[in-house]
Amino acid sequence: MSGAKRPKEYEKLIVKGKRCDGRKIDELRPLTIKVGVIKRANGSAYVELGKTKVYAAVYGPKELHPRRLVEDDKAVLSVKYSMLAFSVNDRARPGPNRRSTEISKVVKHALEPVIFLEEFPQLNIELIVDIIQADAGTRTAAVIAGSVALANAGIPMKGLVSACAAGKVDGEILLDLNAPEDNFGDSDLPIAMTSTDKKITLMQLDGVMTKAEIQKAIILIRKGNDYIISKQIEALKGVYQ
Ligand code: UDP
Asked: Which fold has domain 19-240?
């Protein structure tokens, strides 16, 4: 984020209201959602948000190991987010690290509120998210894909969860930052929301924004999330119709 020295091509990230990838200020990157893409999982999804590409697979409900993690009155949602070695410019080191542990945790908290976990006491619902290509917004893409994969696995849910970010770049609030905007901008605010009551289940802020800027960002994010939810529903319907 902020302060990074910009290469010449990104000296100006907004020119005459257009962004470096041609989008308008309030425009999401092109979004593709595919359902049931992994045969051996109970549920799965593939999400492409611009150049960010993500697979999510769900296993379970199944026995939870180690047993000390068992919750007597509900299922445990375990989330494992990983970046594949070739997903970023500098080869990503395999295995968990601080960032992947943090993102696994926030994706879990973003999704849990819509799942009827109490229907599966003592069991485990496992969500694995692999980032194939990272170009900013991998945690929001992970929430989008994870939510659809859970639905595809037949996990009882109150609704879906969608997610997108907005951030401040060169004094403007932009929807859904891409990698140059994320790297050279001032701040990034990813937000996840439930489809039913639009409750916020994930909100993180990287960088600094004023209250007014956050309010402006939330208006953009709400619109973005409404569109994302419509695409999630369309993708799920496509499989069952
Ligand atoms: N990134 C990277 N290498 C890393 C971690 C991140 O190149 O080890 C890039 C990648 O494009 C990622 C972006 O930085 O999507 C922003 O990462 P951040 O941690 O802010 O999370 P994200 O926006 O992906 O949810």
From this structure: Ribosomal Protein S5; domain 2 (3.30.230)
